[in-house]
From TrEMBL:
InterPro entries: MFP_Cation_Efflux. This is Uncharacterized protein. One of its GO terms (cellular component) is cell envelope. It comes from Rhizorhabdus wittichii (strain DSM 6014 / CCUG 31198 / JCM 15750 / NBRC 105917 / EY 4224 / RW1). Keywords: Plasmid, Transport.
Length: 320
């Protein structure tokens, strides 16, 4: 029986494995020796599957070992320089003189506690009349004033006519040419005309000064709304200090006056009125002003420093 031998190249799966160095895929190529080739081929297959299965396991292990990144903090804080670390500036005497900086001694004194609030400049009306403020309808007010002035003129004319009639009736009675009854009727008509004239004059005063002269008033009123719960803590009947709102102008003293009661039920405030000297026309009707109300409890003692020496920083602190 003839046989042929076939020597194939070495298999790379067999390198470094347990198989012999001269391992071939097929040792004997014949129908009689097919078993050794199948056995050797089957022996080399497990190493290939073991290598393929090992690589994914290593990759999965490496991916799962990476640590998770920490979450970003929601707040970032940083330290602010302490006041001892601030810059100290030293000015020369010439620089101090140019800036107007002077040194004064701090002393002790007494001062009244004040409550700062806002007010409105209004025009005072006559006795019993309502003040004229920015909410008043000047066109309607002017029409009412004209009507009241016409009624007053008519009442005064009737009063003059009634006085003439009474004088004539009295002269006739004195000359024994007239009746006493006619004189008495003329006297009653005079009294009625006088009462009508007084009523017309009172109605005109209730409407306040003429619209054309509102800006020329020597004295104006300051209307200050105050919460009803704060009235007990104020010094009633004391003067207040008035200054332009948002400005550092000179403060003026305003005295309390009796005015018709007014309040705001929605806001829960009542109105206080103060008379202010305005001969220089510094304040206009409807202007907002700053008002310092004295608090009850008397005066308190403490250190006295000039107002210009108090500085305010961006954090609301006060420095002397």
């Amino acid at each position: 029986m003839s046989a042929a031998f076939y020597q194939p190249p070495r298999c790379h799966f067999c390198i470094g494995s347990h198989l012999p160095r001269s391992c071939n895929i097929g040792k004997l190529y014949s129908s009689a020796n097919a078993a050794p080739m199948e056995a050797l081929y089957a022996a080399g297959m497990p190493n290939r599957f073991a290598l393929v299965a090992f690589v994914p396991i290593v990759l999965l292990t490496a991916c799962g070992s990476e640590p998770a990144s920490p979450p970003k903090p929601p707040v970032h804080s940083e330290a602010i320089a302490h006041e001892t670390e601030l810059v100290r500036l030293k000015l020369t005497p010439e620089a101090q003189k140019r800036l107007g900086i002077v040194t004064e001694r701090i002393g002790t004194g007494t001062a009244s506690a004040m409550r700062m609030t806002s007010g409105e400049i209004v025009i005072p009306a006559g006795v019993g009349g309502a003040p004229i403020n920015s909410a008043s309808n000047l066109q309607q007010l002017g029409a009412q004033q004209v009507s009241a002035e016409g009624e007053l003129a008519r009442a005064r004319a009737q009063l003059a006519l009634a006085r003439v009639a009474y004088d004539r009736a009295s002269a006739l009675v004195d000359a024994e040419a007239g009746s006493i009854r006619a004189r008495d009727e003329a006297k009653a008509a005079l009294g009625a005309a006088k009462a009508a004239a007084d009523a017309a004059a009172a109605q005109r005063r209730l409407l306040g000064p003429a619209v054309a002269s509102i800006g020329n008033q020597r004295y104006v009123w300051v209307r200050v709304p105050v919460f009803g719960s704060d009235l007990a803590g104020l010094q009633q009947g004391q003067s207040v200090l008035v200054s332009p709102l948002g400005q550092d102008g000179a403060k003026r003293s305003a005295r309390p006056v009796d005015a018709p009661p007014s309040a705001n039920a929605v806001a829960g405030t009542v109105d206080l009125y103060f008379a202010l000297d305005n001969r220089d026309r510094a304040y206009r009707v409807g202007q907002r002003v700053s008002v310092a109300l004295p608090l009850a409890g008397g005066r308190s003692e403490g250190l006295s420093v000039p107002t210009s020496a108090i500085l305010h920083d961006i954090y609301g602190g006060e420095w002397v």
